[in-house]
Amino acid sequence: MRPDLRTAIATVCLSGTLDDKLAAAAEAGFDGVELFENDLLAARRGPAEIRRRCADLGLSIDLYQPFRDFEAVPPDVLAANLRRAEHKFDLMAELGVDTVLVCSSVSPDAIDDDDLAAEQLHLLATRAGERGLRIAYEALAWGRFVNGYEHAWRIVRRAAHPALGVCLDSFHILSKGDDPRAIRAIPGEKIFFLQLADAPTLPMDVLQWSRHHRLFPGQGDFDLTTFTRNVLDAGYRGPLSLEVFNDVFRQSDPYRAAVDAMRSLVGLKDSLGLLDVPAAPVSDGYAFAEVVGESNLAALGFTRTGVHRSKPVELWTQGDARVLVNANGEPGAIGALGISVPDPAAAAQRAKVLLAPPLSRTAGPGEAPLTAIATPDGTQIFLCANDDWLGDFVPTGESAPGAGITGIDHVALTQPFDNFDEATLFYRAVLGLEPGATAEFAAPFGLVRGRGVSGGGVRLTLDAALVRRGGWAPAVEEPQHIAFTCTDAVACAEALRQSGARLLDIPGNYYDDLAARTGLPADRLSALREHSVLYDRDEHGEYLHFYTELAGARVFFEVVQRIGGYRGFGVTNAPVRMAAHHDARGRTGQLSK
Q: Which residue of 76, 96, 100, 250 has the lowest C-beta tally within 10 Å?
Protein backbone atom coordinates (compact mmCIF):
# COMPACT_ATOMS: atom_id res chain seq x y z
CA MET A 1 0.00 0.00 0.00
CA ARG A 2 1.19 3.49 -0.79
CA PRO A 3 0.95 6.45 1.58
CA ASP A 4 1.20 8.87 -1.36
CA LEU A 5 -2.02 7.96 -3.15
CA ARG A 6 -3.36 10.99 -4.94
CA THR A 7 -6.86 12.32 -4.31
CA ALA A 8 -9.47 13.48 -6.81
CA ILE A 9 -13.10 14.57 -6.81
CA ALA A 10 -15.71 14.53 -9.56
CA THR A 11 -17.03 17.98 -10.33
CA VAL A 12 -20.55 16.56 -10.08
CA CYS A 13 -20.06 16.29 -6.29
CA LEU A 14 -20.06 20.05 -5.80
CA SER A 15 -22.43 22.93 -6.45
CA GLY A 16 -21.84 26.06 -8.49
CA THR A 17 -20.25 26.76 -11.84
CA LEU A 18 -17.21 24.84 -13.01
CA ASP A 19 -15.01 27.70 -11.82
CA ASP A 20 -16.57 27.45 -8.35
CA LYS A 21 -16.05 23.68 -8.25
CA LEU A 22 -12.43 23.81 -9.36
CA ALA A 23 -11.54 26.55 -6.89
CA ALA A 24 -13.21 24.67 -4.02
CA ALA A 25 -11.47 21.39 -4.92
CA ALA A 26 -8.09 23.12 -5.05
CA GLU A 27 -8.61 24.96 -1.76
CA ALA A 28 -9.57 21.72 -0.03
CA GLY A 29 -6.28 20.14 -1.16
CA PHE A 30 -7.37 17.76 -3.91
CA ASP A 31 -4.74 16.74 -6.45
CA GLY A 32 -7.13 16.33 -9.38
CA VAL A 33 -10.69 16.24 -10.65
CA GLU A 34 -12.98 14.10 -12.73
CA LEU A 35 -14.52 16.48 -15.23
CA PHE A 36 -18.22 15.78 -15.63
CA GLU A 37 -19.43 16.57 -19.13
CA ASN A 38 -22.41 18.65 -18.03
CA ASP A 39 -20.09 20.98 -16.14
CA LEU A 40 -17.98 21.44 -19.26
CA LEU A 41 -21.01 22.15 -21.46
CA ALA A 42 -22.22 24.90 -19.10
CA ALA A 43 -18.79 26.48 -18.66
CA ARG A 44 -17.89 29.79 -20.28
CA ARG A 45 -14.23 28.82 -20.56
CA GLY A 46 -13.17 26.73 -23.55
CA PRO A 47 -11.41 23.36 -23.06
CA ALA A 48 -7.90 24.76 -23.46
CA GLU A 49 -8.67 27.56 -21.01
CA ILE A 50 -10.10 25.06 -18.51
CA ARG A 51 -6.89 23.09 -18.81
CA ARG A 52 -4.84 26.20 -18.02
CA ARG A 53 -7.14 27.10 -15.12
CA CYS A 54 -6.69 23.66 -13.58
CA ALA A 55 -2.92 23.92 -13.97
CA ASP A 56 -2.93 27.32 -12.28
CA LEU A 57 -4.87 25.80 -9.37
CA GLY A 58 -2.52 22.82 -9.13
CA LEU A 59 -5.19 20.38 -10.31
CA SER A 60 -4.85 17.63 -12.88
CA ILE A 61 -7.83 16.44 -14.92
CA ASP A 62 -7.71 12.73 -14.24
CA LEU A 63 -10.87 11.56 -16.00
CA TYR A 64 -13.40 12.84 -18.50
CA GLN A 65 -16.86 11.36 -18.07
CA PRO A 66 -19.26 9.93 -19.01
CA PHE A 67 -19.36 8.40 -22.50
CA ARG A 68 -22.56 6.37 -22.68
CA ASP A 69 -24.21 3.60 -24.71
CA PHE A 70 -21.30 2.61 -26.94
CA GLU A 71 -20.82 -1.16 -27.05
CA ALA A 72 -22.65 -4.18 -28.54
CA VAL A 73 -24.74 -2.26 -31.08
CA PRO A 74 -25.66 -2.74 -34.77
CA PRO A 75 -23.22 -1.42 -37.44
CA ASP A 76 -25.10 1.82 -38.18
CA VAL A 77 -25.26 2.72 -34.47
CA LEU A 78 -21.59 1.80 -34.07
CA ALA A 79 -20.62 4.22 -36.85
CA ALA A 80 -22.48 7.04 -35.11
CA ASN A 81 -20.92 6.09 -31.78
CA LEU A 82 -17.44 6.21 -33.25
CA ARG A 83 -18.12 9.69 -34.60
CA ARG A 84 -19.15 10.74 -31.10
CA ALA A 85 -16.01 9.16 -29.71
CA GLU A 86 -13.70 11.01 -32.09
CA HIS A 87 -15.24 14.30 -30.97
CA LYS A 88 -14.63 13.32 -27.33
CA PHE A 89 -11.04 12.43 -28.15
CA ASP A 90 -10.47 15.85 -29.72
CA LEU A 91 -11.94 17.46 -26.63
CA MET A 92 -9.78 15.37 -24.29
CA ALA A 93 -6.66 16.44 -26.17
CA GLU A 94 -7.55 20.08 -25.55
CA LEU A 95 -8.30 19.39 -21.90
CA GLY A 96 -5.10 17.42 -21.40
CA VAL A 97 -6.85 14.36 -19.97
CA ASP A 98 -5.91 10.85 -21.12
CA THR A 99 -8.72 8.68 -19.70
CA VAL A 100 -12.41 8.63 -20.57
CA LEU A 101 -15.09 6.74 -18.64
CA VAL A 102 -17.27 4.50 -20.81
CA CYS A 103 -20.38 3.27 -18.98
CA SER A 104 -21.97 -0.07 -19.81
CA SER A 105 -24.87 0.47 -22.16
CA VAL A 106 -28.48 1.01 -21.13
CA SER A 107 -29.53 1.66 -24.75
CA PRO A 108 -32.41 -0.26 -26.35
CA ASP A 109 -30.07 -0.69 -29.34
CA ALA A 110 -27.68 -2.81 -27.27
CA ILE A 111 -27.38 -6.54 -27.99
CA ASP A 112 -26.70 -9.21 -25.36
CA ASP A 113 -23.45 -10.40 -26.94
CA ASP A 114 -20.18 -10.28 -24.99
CA ASP A 115 -18.10 -11.10 -28.05
CA LEU A 116 -19.60 -8.16 -29.93
CA ALA A 117 -19.11 -5.87 -26.94
CA ALA A 118 -15.45 -6.91 -26.68
CA GLU A 119 -14.91 -6.45 -30.42
CA GLN A 120 -16.37 -2.95 -30.46
CA LEU A 121 -14.57 -1.88 -27.29
CA HIS A 122 -11.33 -3.18 -28.86
CA LEU A 123 -12.01 -0.94 -31.85
CA LEU A 124 -12.68 2.05 -29.61
CA ALA A 125 -9.52 1.35 -27.61
CA THR A 126 -7.49 1.09 -30.80
CA ARG A 127 -8.59 4.55 -31.89
CA ALA A 128 -7.98 5.92 -28.40
CA GLY A 129 -4.58 4.27 -28.11
CA GLU A 130 -3.44 5.81 -31.40
CA ARG A 131 -3.95 9.20 -29.73
CA GLY A 132 -2.34 8.27 -26.40
CA LEU A 133 -5.72 7.92 -24.66
CA ARG A 134 -7.30 5.19 -22.50
CA ILE A 135 -10.80 3.74 -22.12
CA ALA A 136 -12.03 2.91 -18.60
CA TYR A 137 -15.05 0.61 -18.93
CA GLU A 138 -17.50 0.67 -16.01
CA ALA A 139 -20.40 -1.65 -15.26
CA LEU A 140 -23.42 0.42 -14.24
CA ALA A 141 -25.51 -1.33 -11.59
CA TRP A 142 -28.51 -0.78 -13.88
CA GLY A 143 -26.72 -1.62 -17.13
CA ARG A 144 -28.95 -3.37 -19.63
CA PHE A 145 -26.77 -6.46 -20.01
CA VAL A 146 -23.53 -5.63 -18.20
CA ASN A 147 -24.24 -4.61 -14.60
CA GLY A 148 -21.48 -6.26 -12.58
CA TYR A 149 -17.78 -5.51 -12.39
CA GLU A 150 -16.76 -9.15 -12.97
CA HIS A 151 -18.80 -9.19 -16.18
CA ALA A 152 -17.16 -5.93 -17.30
CA TRP A 153 -13.72 -7.40 -16.57
CA ARG A 154 -14.48 -10.52 -18.63
CA ILE A 155 -15.34 -8.31 -21.61
CA VAL A 156 -12.22 -6.16 -21.14
CA ARG A 157 -10.06 -9.26 -20.85
CA ARG A 158 -11.64 -10.69 -24.00
CA ALA A 159 -11.06 -7.44 -25.87
CA ALA A 160 -7.36 -7.64 -24.95
CA HIS A 161 -6.21 -4.12 -25.76
CA PRO A 162 -3.61 -2.21 -23.71
CA ALA A 163 -5.66 1.01 -23.93
CA LEU A 164 -8.75 -0.68 -22.42
CA GLY A 165 -9.23 -1.30 -18.71
CA VAL A 166 -11.95 -1.18 -16.08
CA CYS A 167 -13.25 1.55 -13.84
CA LEU A 168 -14.35 0.26 -10.42
CA ASP A 169 -17.08 2.24 -8.68
CA SER A 170 -17.82 1.30 -5.08
CA PHE A 171 -21.48 2.27 -5.36
CA HIS A 172 -22.18 0.12 -8.41
CA ILE A 173 -20.50 -2.83 -6.71
CA LEU A 174 -21.62 -2.57 -3.10
CA SER A 175 -25.18 -1.41 -3.78
CA LYS A 176 -25.82 -4.76 -5.49
CA GLY A 177 -24.15 -6.73 -2.73
CA ASP A 178 -21.40 -7.99 -5.05
CA ASP A 179 -18.36 -9.52 -3.35
CA PRO A 180 -15.39 -7.18 -3.79
CA ARG A 181 -12.83 -9.89 -3.05
CA ALA A 182 -12.73 -10.93 -6.71
CA ILE A 183 -11.22 -7.51 -7.48
CA ARG A 184 -7.89 -8.96 -6.34
CA ALA A 185 -7.92 -11.20 -9.44
CA ILE A 186 -7.87 -8.17 -11.78
CA PRO A 187 -4.30 -7.10 -12.67
CA GLY A 188 -3.62 -3.72 -11.12
CA GLU A 189 -2.52 -2.22 -14.44
CA LYS A 190 -5.95 -3.04 -15.90
CA ILE A 191 -7.77 -1.08 -13.19
CA PHE A 192 -7.66 2.29 -14.91
CA PHE A 193 -9.72 4.25 -12.38
CA LEU A 194 -11.34 3.98 -8.96
CA GLN A 195 -14.46 5.91 -7.94
CA LEU A 196 -15.56 5.94 -4.31
CA ALA A 197 -18.95 6.69 -2.81
CA ASP A 198 -20.67 5.65 0.39
CA ALA A 199 -24.45 5.42 0.85
CA PRO A 200 -27.09 4.63 3.45
CA THR A 201 -28.81 1.28 3.15
CA LEU A 202 -32.05 2.06 1.33
CA PRO A 203 -34.55 -0.45 -0.11
CA MET A 204 -35.19 1.44 -3.35
CA ASP A 205 -34.52 1.43 -7.07
CA VAL A 206 -30.75 1.42 -7.50
CA LEU A 207 -30.76 4.17 -10.14
CA GLN A 208 -32.68 6.58 -7.88
CA TRP A 209 -30.54 5.50 -4.94
CA SER A 210 -27.43 6.31 -6.95
CA ARG A 211 -28.59 9.64 -8.37
CA HIS A 212 -29.80 11.18 -5.09
CA HIS A 213 -28.41 9.44 -2.01
CA ARG A 214 -24.71 8.77 -2.39
CA LEU A 215 -22.46 10.03 0.42
CA PHE A 216 -18.80 10.66 1.04
CA PRO A 217 -16.85 7.75 2.60
CA GLY A 218 -17.58 7.37 6.29
CA GLN A 219 -21.04 8.95 6.11
CA GLY A 220 -22.99 5.86 5.11
CA ASP A 221 -23.18 2.11 5.64
CA PHE A 222 -20.78 0.69 3.03
CA ASP A 223 -17.54 -0.98 4.11
CA LEU A 224 -15.26 1.15 1.97
CA THR A 225 -12.15 0.21 3.93
CA THR A 226 -12.38 -3.44 2.87
CA PHE A 227 -13.48 -2.48 -0.64
CA THR A 228 -10.55 -0.10 -1.17
CA ARG A 229 -8.05 -2.50 0.37
CA ASN A 230 -9.04 -5.09 -2.24
CA VAL A 231 -8.43 -2.57 -5.01
CA LEU A 232 -5.04 -1.53 -3.64
CA ASP A 233 -4.01 -5.15 -3.05
CA ALA A 234 -4.77 -5.81 -6.73
CA GLY A 235 -2.04 -3.27 -7.56
CA TYR A 236 -4.09 -0.17 -8.43
CA ARG A 237 -1.88 2.90 -8.61
CA GLY A 238 -4.30 5.65 -9.63
CA PRO A 239 -6.02 8.28 -7.48
CA LEU A 240 -8.65 7.74 -4.82
CA SER A 241 -11.47 9.64 -6.48
CA LEU A 242 -14.91 10.60 -5.20
CA GLU A 243 -18.00 10.39 -7.39
CA VAL A 244 -20.98 11.32 -5.24
CA PHE A 245 -24.40 12.26 -6.57
CA ASN A 246 -26.28 13.91 -3.72
CA ASP A 247 -29.06 16.51 -3.90
CA VAL A 248 -27.89 18.28 -0.74
CA PHE A 249 -24.21 18.45 -1.66
CA ARG A 250 -25.04 19.83 -5.10
CA GLN A 251 -26.76 22.87 -3.58
CA SER A 252 -24.46 23.45 -0.60
CA ASP A 253 -21.47 25.75 -0.26
CA PRO A 254 -18.89 24.06 -2.53
CA TYR A 255 -15.96 25.06 -0.34
CA ARG A 256 -17.45 23.51 2.78
CA ALA A 257 -18.53 20.40 0.85
CA ALA A 258 -15.05 20.01 -0.65
CA VAL A 259 -13.46 20.11 2.82
CA ASP A 260 -15.96 17.49 3.99
CA ALA A 261 -15.07 15.39 0.95
CA MET A 262 -11.35 15.65 1.64
CA ARG A 263 -11.92 14.75 5.30
CA SER A 264 -13.68 11.60 4.10
CA LEU A 265 -10.64 10.52 2.07
CA VAL A 266 -8.22 11.34 4.89
CA GLY A 267 -10.39 9.22 7.17
CA LEU A 268 -10.43 6.40 4.62
CA LYS A 269 -6.64 6.51 4.26
CA ASP A 270 -6.36 6.37 8.04
CA SER A 271 -8.64 3.32 8.19
CA LEU A 272 -6.37 1.65 5.62
CA GLY A 273 -3.28 2.32 7.70
CA LEU A 274 -1.83 4.68 5.11
CA LEU A 275 -1.33 7.69 7.39
CA ASP A 276 0.99 8.39 10.28
CA VAL A 277 -1.66 10.00 12.45
CA PRO A 278 -2.60 9.39 16.09
CA ALA A 279 -5.42 6.92 16.58
CA ALA A 280 -8.88 8.20 17.37
CA PRO A 281 -9.08 8.94 21.09
CA VAL A 282 -11.03 6.63 23.37
CA SER A 283 -12.87 8.91 25.76
CA ASP A 284 -14.02 7.84 29.19
CA GLY A 285 -16.81 10.42 29.26
CA TYR A 286 -17.73 14.06 29.54
CA ALA A 287 -15.56 16.38 31.58
CA PHE A 288 -18.27 19.03 31.34
CA ALA A 289 -21.00 20.56 29.21
CA GLU A 290 -21.33 24.32 28.83
CA VAL A 291 -24.56 26.25 28.44
CA VAL A 292 -24.87 29.95 27.73
CA GLY A 293 -27.04 32.17 29.89
CA GLU A 294 -29.35 31.42 32.80
CA SER A 295 -30.35 27.75 32.94
CA ASN A 296 -31.97 27.43 36.42
CA LEU A 297 -29.70 24.55 37.38
CA ALA A 298 -30.38 25.11 41.09
CA ALA A 299 -33.92 23.81 40.57
CA LEU A 300 -32.41 20.58 39.24
CA GLY A 301 -30.41 20.07 42.42
CA PHE A 302 -27.10 21.44 41.10
CA THR A 303 -24.74 23.47 43.28
CA ARG A 304 -22.73 26.46 42.13
CA THR A 305 -19.35 25.17 43.27
CA GLY A 306 -16.95 27.46 41.40
CA VAL A 307 -16.43 30.78 39.63
CA HIS A 308 -13.85 31.11 36.84
CA ARG A 309 -10.80 33.17 37.68
CA SER A 310 -10.84 35.33 34.53
CA LYS A 311 -14.02 34.61 32.57
CA PRO A 312 -17.73 35.13 33.29
CA VAL A 313 -18.25 31.37 33.76
CA GLU A 314 -19.69 29.45 36.71
CA LEU A 315 -19.27 25.77 37.55
CA TRP A 316 -22.36 23.87 38.67
CA THR A 317 -22.06 20.26 39.85
CA GLN A 318 -24.18 17.33 41.02
CA GLY A 319 -22.64 13.90 41.40
CA ASP A 320 -20.20 13.56 38.49
CA ALA A 321 -22.24 15.91 36.29
CA ARG A 322 -20.48 19.23 35.67
CA VAL A 323 -22.14 22.07 33.84
CA LEU A 324 -20.50 25.39 33.02
CA VAL A 325 -22.75 28.42 32.71
CA ASN A 326 -21.19 31.06 30.46
CA ALA A 327 -22.55 34.61 30.55
CA ASN A 328 -21.12 35.35 27.08
CA GLY A 329 -22.56 34.11 23.80
CA GLU A 330 -25.97 33.18 22.42
CA PRO A 331 -28.32 32.80 25.42
CA GLY A 332 -29.89 29.40 25.88
CA ALA A 333 -27.44 27.39 23.76
CA ILE A 334 -24.91 24.63 24.35
CA GLY A 335 -21.65 26.42 23.72
CA ALA A 336 -19.05 23.75 24.40
CA LEU A 337 -18.44 20.17 25.49
CA GLY A 338 -15.46 18.92 27.47
CA ILE A 339 -14.36 15.43 26.42
CA SER A 340 -12.00 13.42 28.62
CA VAL A 341 -9.23 11.89 26.49
CA PRO A 342 -5.98 10.22 27.55
CA ASP A 343 -3.74 12.39 25.34
CA PRO A 344 -5.17 15.80 24.33
CA ALA A 345 -2.08 16.70 22.24
CA ALA A 346 -2.43 13.54 20.15
CA ALA A 347 -6.19 14.08 19.79
CA ALA A 348 -5.55 17.66 18.67
CA GLN A 349 -2.97 16.50 16.13
CA ARG A 350 -5.45 13.99 14.75
CA ALA A 351 -8.13 16.68 14.52
CA LYS A 352 -5.76 18.91 12.56
CA VAL A 353 -4.94 16.15 10.05
CA LEU A 354 -8.69 15.53 9.70
CA LEU A 355 -9.16 19.21 8.77
CA ALA A 356 -10.45 20.32 12.17
CA PRO A 357 -7.65 22.63 13.33
CA PRO A 358 -7.56 23.82 16.96
CA LEU A 359 -9.42 27.02 17.81
CA SER A 360 -7.44 29.94 19.12
CA ARG A 361 -8.26 30.77 22.75
CA THR A 362 -6.76 32.87 25.48
CA ALA A 363 -5.78 31.33 28.81
CA GLY A 364 -4.94 33.51 31.79
CA PRO A 365 -1.83 33.07 33.95
CA GLY A 366 -1.82 29.67 35.61
CA GLU A 367 -4.95 28.47 33.78
CA ALA A 368 -5.16 25.04 32.17
CA PRO A 369 -3.99 25.10 28.50
CA LEU A 370 -7.05 23.35 27.06
CA THR A 371 -7.24 22.65 23.32
CA ALA A 372 -10.56 23.29 21.56
CA ILE A 373 -11.79 22.30 18.10
CA ALA A 374 -14.99 23.38 16.34
CA THR A 375 -17.67 20.96 15.19
CA PRO A 376 -19.66 21.53 11.98
CA ASP A 377 -22.51 23.17 13.93
CA GLY A 378 -20.11 25.50 15.78
CA THR A 379 -20.13 23.74 19.16
CA GLN A 380 -16.64 23.78 20.67
CA ILE A 381 -15.06 20.52 21.81
CA PHE A 382 -12.48 20.87 24.60
CA LEU A 383 -9.98 18.01 24.94
CA CYS A 384 -9.30 17.32 28.62
CA ALA A 385 -6.78 14.83 30.00
CA ASN A 386 -7.75 15.05 33.66
CA ASP A 387 -9.36 17.46 36.09
CA ASP A 388 -6.64 20.12 35.90
CA TRP A 389 -9.18 22.51 34.36
CA LEU A 390 -11.05 22.56 37.67
CA GLY A 391 -8.18 24.62 39.05
CA ASP A 392 -9.37 27.51 36.87
CA PHE A 393 -12.40 27.90 39.20
CA VAL A 394 -12.39 29.52 42.61
CA PRO A 395 -14.47 27.34 44.99
CA THR A 396 -17.61 28.98 46.34
CA GLY A 397 -18.03 26.73 49.37
CA GLU A 398 -21.72 26.33 48.53
CA SER A 399 -23.50 22.99 48.91
CA ALA A 400 -26.89 21.49 48.12
CA PRO A 401 -28.44 18.07 48.79
CA GLY A 402 -28.92 17.21 45.10
CA ALA A 403 -31.82 15.35 43.54
CA GLY A 404 -30.30 12.08 42.38
CA ILE A 405 -28.51 13.18 39.19
CA THR A 406 -25.20 11.31 38.89
CA GLY A 407 -23.54 12.30 35.60
CA ILE A 408 -23.97 13.15 31.92
CA ASP A 409 -25.44 10.41 29.74
CA HIS A 410 -25.50 12.14 26.36
CA VAL A 411 -25.83 15.47 24.61
CA ALA A 412 -28.28 16.13 21.77
CA LEU A 413 -27.30 18.63 19.08
CA THR A 414 -29.67 19.66 16.29
CA GLN A 415 -27.88 20.01 12.96
CA PRO A 416 -28.84 22.13 9.98
CA PHE A 417 -30.28 19.58 7.56
CA ASP A 418 -27.57 20.22 4.95
CA ASN A 419 -24.85 19.39 7.49
CA PHE A 420 -26.31 16.21 8.98
CA ASP A 421 -24.02 13.82 7.07
CA GLU A 422 -21.04 16.16 7.53
CA ALA A 423 -21.53 16.03 11.30
CA THR A 424 -21.67 12.21 11.25
CA LEU A 425 -18.35 12.06 9.40
CA PHE A 426 -16.75 14.66 11.67
CA TYR A 427 -17.50 12.80 14.89
CA ARG A 428 -16.59 9.46 13.35
CA ALA A 429 -13.29 10.52 11.77
CA VAL A 430 -12.04 13.10 14.26
CA LEU A 431 -13.21 11.65 17.59
CA GLY A 432 -13.71 7.98 16.68
CA LEU A 433 -17.40 7.90 17.63
CA GLU A 434 -19.26 5.18 15.75
CA PRO A 435 -22.64 6.11 14.27
CA GLY A 436 -25.72 4.07 14.94
CA ALA A 437 -28.59 3.54 12.53
CA THR A 438 -30.33 6.61 11.14
CA ALA A 439 -33.93 6.93 12.31
CA GLU A 440 -36.67 9.06 10.81
CA PHE A 441 -39.90 9.83 12.60
CA ALA A 442 -42.97 11.94 11.99
CA ALA A 443 -42.84 14.79 14.48
CA PRO A 444 -45.72 17.22 15.06
CA PHE A 445 -44.19 19.72 12.64
CA GLY A 446 -42.62 17.51 9.99
CA LEU A 447 -40.17 14.70 9.43
CA VAL A 448 -37.11 14.54 11.68
CA ARG A 449 -33.97 12.52 11.05
CA GLY A 450 -31.65 11.47 13.85
CA ARG A 451 -28.80 9.15 14.71
CA GLY A 452 -26.61 8.50 17.69
CA VAL A 453 -22.80 8.48 17.63
CA SER A 454 -20.94 6.96 20.54
CA GLY A 455 -17.62 5.63 21.71
CA GLY A 456 -16.02 5.03 25.09
CA GLY A 457 -18.06 7.02 27.59
CA VAL A 458 -19.31 9.65 25.14
CA ARG A 459 -22.72 9.58 23.50
CA LEU A 460 -24.19 12.22 21.19
CA THR A 461 -27.40 12.37 19.24
CA LEU A 462 -27.54 14.33 16.00
CA ASP A 463 -30.94 15.47 14.78
CA ALA A 464 -32.13 17.43 11.76
CA ALA A 465 -35.54 18.60 10.59
CA LEU A 466 -35.90 17.73 6.91
CA VAL A 467 -38.19 20.65 6.03
CA ARG A 468 -39.24 23.73 7.98
CA ARG A 469 -41.72 26.01 6.21
CA GLY A 470 -44.05 28.82 7.14
CA GLY A 471 -45.17 30.47 10.34
CA TRP A 472 -46.63 27.24 11.68
CA ALA A 473 -43.14 25.82 12.26
CA PRO A 474 -42.25 25.92 15.97
CA ALA A 475 -40.26 28.91 17.16
CA VAL A 476 -37.41 26.76 18.54
CA GLU A 477 -35.70 25.84 15.30
CA GLU A 478 -32.59 24.11 16.63
CA PRO A 479 -33.28 22.72 20.12
CA GLN A 480 -30.41 21.21 22.09
CA HIS A 481 -30.37 19.30 25.32
CA ILE A 482 -28.16 17.66 27.90
CA ALA A 483 -29.27 14.29 29.28
CA PHE A 484 -28.18 13.53 32.84
CA THR A 485 -27.99 10.07 34.41
CA CYS A 486 -29.73 8.92 37.56
CA THR A 487 -30.28 5.63 39.37
CA ASP A 488 -34.04 6.01 39.89
CA ALA A 489 -35.93 8.15 37.36
CA VAL A 490 -39.23 8.16 39.24
CA ALA A 491 -37.64 9.20 42.55
CA CYS A 492 -35.53 11.83 40.79
CA ALA A 493 -38.57 13.29 39.00
CA GLU A 494 -40.50 13.40 42.27
CA ALA A 495 -37.64 15.18 44.06
CA LEU A 496 -37.23 17.72 41.27
CA ARG A 497 -40.94 18.58 41.20
CA GLN A 498 -40.86 19.13 44.95
CA SER A 499 -37.90 21.49 44.52
CA GLY A 500 -39.82 23.57 41.96
CA ALA A 501 -38.24 22.32 38.75
CA ARG A 502 -40.43 22.90 35.68
CA LEU A 503 -40.72 19.37 34.34
CA LEU A 504 -42.52 18.59 31.11
CA ASP A 505 -46.05 17.20 31.50
CA ILE A 506 -46.81 14.17 29.32
CA PRO A 507 -50.45 13.57 28.26
CA GLY A 508 -52.41 10.67 29.64
CA ASN A 509 -53.04 9.20 26.20
CA TYR A 510 -49.36 8.25 26.06
CA TYR A 511 -49.67 6.10 29.18
CA ASP A 512 -52.88 4.47 28.02
CA ASP A 513 -51.04 3.35 24.89
CA LEU A 514 -47.95 2.38 26.89
CA ALA A 515 -50.06 0.03 29.00
CA ALA A 516 -51.47 -1.64 25.91
CA ARG A 517 -48.07 -1.93 24.19
CA THR A 518 -45.91 -3.14 27.04
CA GLY A 519 -48.06 -4.83 29.67
CA LEU A 520 -46.09 -3.09 32.43
CA PRO A 521 -47.36 -3.77 35.98
CA ALA A 522 -50.12 -1.37 36.98
CA ASP A 523 -48.21 0.10 39.94
CA ARG A 524 -45.14 0.80 37.82
CA LEU A 525 -47.21 2.34 35.07
CA SER A 526 -49.02 4.49 37.62
CA ALA A 527 -45.70 5.85 38.94
CA LEU A 528 -44.53 6.70 35.43
CA ARG A 529 -47.82 8.47 34.69
CA GLU A 530 -47.82 10.43 37.95
CA HIS A 531 -44.34 11.84 37.36
CA SER A 532 -44.44 12.16 33.51
CA VAL A 533 -41.63 9.64 33.05
CA LEU A 534 -41.45 8.13 29.57
CA TYR A 535 -40.48 4.54 28.85
CA ASP A 536 -38.72 2.56 26.14
CA ARG A 537 -37.04 -0.82 25.91
CA ASP A 538 -35.01 -2.90 23.48
CA GLU A 539 -33.59 -6.41 23.49
CA HIS A 540 -30.88 -5.31 25.96
CA GLY A 541 -32.79 -3.42 28.62
CA GLU A 542 -35.08 -0.55 29.56
CA TYR A 543 -34.92 3.25 29.40
CA LEU A 544 -36.79 5.62 31.70
CA HIS A 545 -36.52 9.34 31.00
CA PHE A 546 -38.17 12.69 31.64
CA TYR A 547 -37.61 16.25 30.49
CA THR A 548 -37.63 19.81 31.74
CA GLU A 549 -39.38 22.63 29.95
CA LEU A 550 -37.15 24.94 27.92
CA ALA A 551 -34.48 26.74 29.95
CA GLY A 552 -33.79 29.78 27.80
CA ALA A 553 -34.20 30.07 24.05
CA ARG A 554 -33.45 26.54 22.90
CA VAL A 555 -31.94 24.36 25.64
CA PHE A 556 -33.72 21.87 27.87
CA PHE A 557 -32.59 18.98 30.04
CA GLU A 558 -33.38 15.29 30.18
CA VAL A 559 -32.82 12.84 33.01
CA VAL A 560 -32.40 9.18 32.08
CA GLN A 561 -32.16 5.83 33.79
CA ARG A 562 -30.66 2.98 31.79
CA ILE A 563 -31.61 -0.47 33.03
CA GLY A 564 -29.58 -3.42 31.79
CA GLY A 565 -27.79 -2.84 28.51
CA TYR A 566 -30.25 -0.51 26.79
CA ARG A 567 -28.36 1.19 23.96
CA GLY A 568 -30.76 3.69 22.44
CA PHE A 569 -32.02 7.18 23.24
CA GLY A 570 -35.80 6.77 23.51
CA VAL A 571 -36.34 8.08 19.98
CA THR A 572 -39.78 6.51 19.79
CA ASN A 573 -40.94 9.04 22.40
CA ALA A 574 -39.53 12.10 20.62
CA PRO A 575 -42.80 13.15 18.90
CA VAL A 576 -44.61 13.09 22.25
CA ARG A 577 -41.89 15.19 23.85
CA MET A 578 -41.91 17.70 20.97
CA ALA A 579 -45.67 18.19 21.16
CA ALA A 580 -45.48 18.58 24.94
CA HIS A 581 -42.78 21.22 24.60
CA HIS A 582 -44.90 23.13 22.11
CA ASP A 583 -47.90 23.03 24.44
CA ALA A 584 -45.78 24.15 27.39
CA ARG A 585 -44.45 27.12 25.46
CA GLY A 586 -47.98 28.08 24.51
CA ARG A 587 -49.09 28.03 28.16
CA THR A 588 -46.17 30.24 29.22
CA GLY A 589 -46.48 32.65 26.30
CA GLN A 590 -43.13 31.65 24.81
CA LEU A 591 -44.42 30.91 21.31
CA SER A 592 -43.27 33.58 18.87
CA LYS A 593 -44.82 32.19 15.70
A: 76
